[in-house]
Amino acid sequence: MEAATPGVDRVIVITGASRGIGARTASIAAQRGYRVCINYQSNRTKADEVVRSIEAAGGHAVAVQADVGDAAAVARMFETVDRELGTVTALVNNAGVNDIAQGRVDEVTADDLRRLFNTNVVSLFLCSREAIRRMSTKHGGRGGTIVNLSSTLAHTAAAGRFIAYGATKGAIEAFSYSLAQEVAAEGIRVNCCRPGPSDTDMIPPGRIAQIGAQLPMGRISTPDEVANAILWLLSDEASYVSGTILGVTGAR
Question: Which of 22, 78, 163, 184 lies 20 to 30 Å (CA to CA) from residue 133?
Answer without folding.
Answer: 22
